[in-house]
Amino acid sequence: KLAKSLEVKLSALNALGASFDLEAKFSAAKDTFLKTYSLADSDKERCSALLNLVVSLLNQGELEQADHYLQKAADGGGLRKDYLSARLLLLRGDIASARIAFELLLAKTKQQNLLYLYFQCLPKFISCLLLSGESREAFELATKGLEESKKPGLFRSELALLRSLGDCLVKMNDFSGAFKVLLSALNLARLSEYSLGIRGLLLQLLRTYKFEPDFSAQVLAYCLSRESQLLFEDRQVLATLNPSQRKENSDALVHLNEIELSDLILLRYQA
């Protein structure tokens, strides 16, 4: 009974930590996963807690801390640990090593029919291709992967691949096509009320240059006001946007929430 009670408590704590991470409450997520680690009584449970913590640290850009806890995690993490190691390489800018790591992971996860992990790896591998200047190959893989992701109904995978496809089209200078793809992604995120996904999509939409200037400035002001809530990768996108787009008195949208703003954008552009 005690073992079962502890198992339930650890499961609840992991769920709570993941919830904090999705809400971009990174400090609370870290404390929760460390508490889970301290209570765990098996190597497998301790490893799981550490890997959950690494995910949260990567999301907030604490790369050195993420590396520390990744090294501390036992080998029981398997392919999930390999995925996080590859993601760390990508975030550190070691594109060549990350590409090799994700390519190996794609082969292993497909062979073992680990669809969820496969579709987590695929957008990251596509990013490696884009960063290596292989836009056409990335586009073909994103298009094929998007169709495949719809079959098992993995909406977050579908959302990630729509974002990847949008990135491919931007690299190919098809800004109109990218805008349409990202609007469909925004609609998917809105329907699921996935706020974290919506914030990142707002930034990608700004990069397609299809908003009229005043509206673009207001959306940028909105994103800047929520900078601390963005994932590390999205904060990197925010840094590439032109701050001069932000005008005086351009904060009319700042007090909306993500769902309200996405509704306004989708209505405005008839998506």
List the helices and strands and how they pair.
Elements: H1 2-22, H2 26-39, H3 43-60, H4 63-72, H5 78-91, H6 95-111, H7 115-131, H8 135-150, H9 155-171, H10 175-191, H11 195-207, H12 213-225, H13 232-240, H14 258-268
Characteristic key phrases:
271 residues; mainly alpha; 14 helices; 76% helix; globular
Description:
The chain has 271 residues and is mainly α. Helices cover 76% and strands 0% of the residues. The chain has 14 helices and no strands. The longest helix is centred in the N-terminal third of the chain and has 21 residues. The mean pLDDT is 91.
Low-confidence stretches: none
| SS element count, helices | 14
What is the percent of helical residues? over 70%
Number of strands: 0
SSE run: HHHHHHHHHHHHHH
Shape: globular
Gyration radius, in Å:
19 Å
What percent strand?
Answer: under 5%
Average pLDDT across residues? 91
What class, by secondary structure content? mainly alpha
Distance between the termini: 53 Å
Task: Describe the sheet with the most strands.
Answer: none
Characterize this entry briefly.
The protein is mostly helical and 271 residues long.
